[in-house]
Specification:
It is a single chain. Helix content is 44%, strand content 11%. It is α+β, with helices and mostly antiparallel strands. It has 2 domains: 34 residues; 175 residues, Glutaredoxin. The chain has a 5-stranded mixed sheet. It is elongated.
Length: 266
């Protein structure tokens, strides 16, 4: 009987077989093309991932430019809006002062302030005290020219302007204007005639002048000339020095602002 040689009493496990790569199982030509295609797909996938990361971060460019959607568009700098500069006003654009104008102060003063105004305008009423203070503080240095610019939506704009010219006919324009602005919103034919009587005017002459609208054409011409010079609202004024330099004033500015502009031209 044969005897098993003495030694270890158990079986030694066999070594696992190494699995073959798919490419090793294919013929060499087919393995080459499969590997080539795999490499191409890998490169394409990597490129897509990189491009996607750029798009997500906002640094990408448009793949569908101008479509409005479906692609990330490279962000151009947002333009900053700029304010249009104020148009330059030349003294030649403003009608010169004549004997037909109502002028307060020294006619030979080095500074001329031309105000286009509306007696029914509440802002003009607010601006009037500022101008009165200017005339007190700059006595001999400023002359104040009042011109009419009645607004179309003020029913008493033109009639009050006409009435003031009827008062000017008797040498009382400024006194009449001061009373009108002091009265606030109380305007009308009866009001104008009462002011005229209080100022001691020839009421018959004044009343006929008011009722006939004698100076309506003059008022309209001043308003048209003001619009051509750049006036678009009331009060609208120009400060002019002897050299012809002009500083426009828009609105009911306080005395301090007007004084600052005057000082810049003196």
């Amino acid at each position: 009987m044969d005897h098993t040689p003495m030694g270890n009493s158990h079986h030694s496990p066999s070594k696992p077989k190494k699995m073959k790569n798919v490419l090793e199982l294919l013929p060499s030509k087919q393995a080459f093309w499969l590997g080539f295609i795999t490499a191409i797909l890998s490169i394409g996938t990597l490129g897509f991932v990189l491009l996607g990361s750029q798009v997500i971060s906002g640094d990408g460019f448009s793949l569908n430019a101008g479509s409005g959607s479906g692609g990330a568009v490279a962000q151009a700098p947002t333009p900053v809006p700029t304010q249009a500069p104020e148009p330059t006003v030349n003294a030649d654009d403003i009608p010169e002062v004549t004997d037909e104008d109502n002028v307060r102060g020294d006619k030979d003063a080095p500074i001329t302030i031309i105000e286009y105004s509306d007696f029914e305008c509440p802002f003009c009423s607010r601006f009037h005290p500022s101008m009165l203070q200017v005339m007190d503080e700059y006595e001999g240095k400023v002359k104040w020219v009042y011109r009419h610019f009645p607004l179309s939506f003020h029913p008493e704009g033109e009639p009050s302007a006409n009435a003031s010219e009827c008062a000017a006919e008797q040498g009382k324009f400024w006194e009449f204007a001061d009373k009108i602005f002091e009265g606030g919103d109380s305007l009308g034919s009866d009001v104008y005639k009462k002011i005229a009587a209080d100022l001691g005017l020839n009421t018959g002459q004044f009343n006929d002048c008011v009722d006939s609208g004698k100076y309506n054409e003059k008022v309209q011409k001043q308003a048209q000339a003001g619009g051509a010079a750049g006036i678009s609202g009331t009060p609208g004024s120009f400060i002019i020095n002897q050299d012809g330099k002009v500083v426009p004033i828009k609105g009911a500015l306080p005395y301090s602002a007007v004084a600052s502009s005057i000082d810049s031209l003196l």
